[in-house]
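User: My collaborator sent over this chain with a note saying "see what the structure looks like." That's all I know about it. Can you take a look?
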Amino acid sequence: MEREGLYRRIKEYTPIEKQILSGAPTQEEIPAFGHPADGDTLCFSMNEFISSGETIGIHRQDRFVEVAPHTHDYIELAYMWSGSCIQEIEGQKQQSLEGDVCIFDTQAVHSFGRTGEDDIVVNILMHREFFDAAFLTRLSGQGILSEFLVDSVTKSRKKRHYLYFQTHGNQAVRRIMEQILLEYYTQDLGNRQVIESYLVILFTELLRSMRDTSKEAKEREQADICELLSYIEKNYEHCTLTDMAEYFGFNRNYLTGLLKERTGRSFLEHVQEQKLKKACALLKHTDLPIQEIVSLSGYANLNFFYKKFREAEGCTPAAYRKQRNPVT
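Assistant: Without extra context I'll predict from the sequence alone. Here is the result:
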């Protein structure tokens, strides 16, 4: 399927939309998904939308009709493909513009107002296990900056049960969504694995947008922390607290306090964590001798590396390599 075919497919009327446009049913006569949960809230089941055994599904939301307050037994990513709509999420009204993304946890009660011809919402349905593995576990292992952003998202998710990304105008998110949908509708060889990979890329772009939005909105405290952690990621092998303070024009004590207050960790703890992340990656993906890995990870003392590694991972580097990469 080409891009033009995808756009035609998304605009096609669903059976429910055809019924609505024919003037036959009333709102109450339209077939409803879900089963009663608390009060008037419905709970949608993933089995109503995808085949048993699948971990990801895609559902283009019906237009011309309201979607009643509901929850899910899955994680849902709602992408505003075109137009706009009004959502009510946990009691708060939110206008979604073309390109915006919202990720709903299983406990998030939300509804959609009536949409028009060009107001198209595409929903990606994911089992919680896949979402947690792809968004949280996998991304947090990329570096201390990603871990900090993922941790921020996780805390927000625990408070609100949803994550809202104002990504209208973000062409990278648009291109990734197009690729996901092309793969899904084409159903070619290995499309499930390809879709999962694109979703990880999408989650990464959403994290980047969260970081960039904080800068554009001049939320300097958050932006400064991202810049500080990025500096440590790039210079962890040789940087010192003094070097970093001079680079940013901060007092050493102020820098120490800022890191501790905003991340809960000191400069040295962040440096050690980044070194260990590099060592773990090399142990998993290469067959380099451990002594060489120690040097490449920025450690000058072999015994100190072994001590820190055991404290962090609960085993020796050799045992870690055997568990994660048994063929080496």
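A starting point for your reply to your collaborator: The CA atoms of residues 89 and 110 lie 4 Å apart.
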